[in-house]
Design a protein that fits this description.
96 residues; 5 helices; globular; 3 strands
């Protein structure tokens, strides 16, 4: 992790750089999991809502694998749990 940067900011920066998302929201839910065994090891709980052109035509599994690939190092230490909503711009527009 980059010195002086919190995990939420790091997640956001890595995803923005790799995917150039149309929409991105990174929510730190760690406080809701205080006392949880995983939280004791220092890893945080995060929710990511991500809309990216790169997701067009990809399955949910492929989208999630791409996010895990981008956040690989953090998944080993700074992130204990990651919940994702990954959609393409076409899907995002259809929801409105």
């Amino acid at each position: 992790m980059v010195m002086g940067m919190d995990t939420r900011t790091l997640i956001e920066q890595r995803l923005r750089k790799a995917l150039d998302p149309v929409e991105l929201d990174v929510i730190d839910e760690s406080a809701a999991h205080a006392g949880h065994a995983g939280a004791a090891s220092g890893g945080g709980h995060f929710r990511v809502i991500l809309v990216a052109k790169e997701f067009e035509g990809l399955s949910q599994l492929a989208r999630q694998r791409r996010v895990y690939e981008i956040l690989g190092d953090e998944m080993k230490s700074a992130i204990h749990a990651l919940s994702m909503t990954c959609v393409s711009p076409t899907e995002y527009e259809a929801e409105d």
